[in-house]
Design goal:
Order of helices and strands: HHHHHHHH
Helix content: 55-70%
Oligomer: single chain
Radius of gyration: 17 Å
Largest sheet: none
Amino acid sequence: MFDTGPVFEDVLSRRLGSMHAFALFMACGHEEYAEEIMTRAVLRALEEHLLGEQPDRSLERAILADVVTDTPPAALPTGPSATPVQPADRHRLRLVSPACLRRAAERIPARARAAIWLVMVERRSYNETADLLGIDLDAIASLLEWRDVLMRAALDDSAGDVARRFAR
């Protein structure tokens, strides 16, 4: 039996909820896929921890390694062409459910999902996000432009949810 020490278990128990939410967002709401991602991430992070890596960063890197395979850094998508969310629509964003947001995430590339999650939800710096994704700061700014596509899709999906509820 390996002695993983209290550090790995402490970090894992503290971060498990947020890491599961990250995996679920990256998996666009597909529960089974998110569970597979988490299982592989925890095993990979434990392996890296045993080699001396900090568990906090290795959990995120493990999730990213599993799901951010859509586009190599040299060929990142250019900016999206979405209508930005207008100030009049912003009040509707509070009504968007997590399920709508996860479904909307399917409309954007995995690297953009990761950048949006790390910067906007986890409150990571651009530098740290760029380091985790293995790209430069300009690419982070470009990826964050996809948030308008995400928000517009989430608003549209949310409106569809409301219409379906009233149609019953």
